[in-house]
Amino acid sequence: MSTLAPEELDELYTRLCYRMARAGEPATPQILARLVLLLMHEVGDAGRIGQAITEATRDFPEIVAVESPL
Q: Per-domain residue ranges for the chain?
């Protein structure tokens, strides 16, 4: 797995933020969902993706009870 330099990560994050700002706040969830799906396809490793999902959602409380099929 290659890692991005901090400068590259900052540049890409800034680019994403500006693109979402230009698209407008209502489009943000759709842009992020599309980006996640594209990156999942690029990563191509279900284990790594599952770990990333766990890490990304770790500090968020479960507010709504949802029955998961998994």
A: 6-57
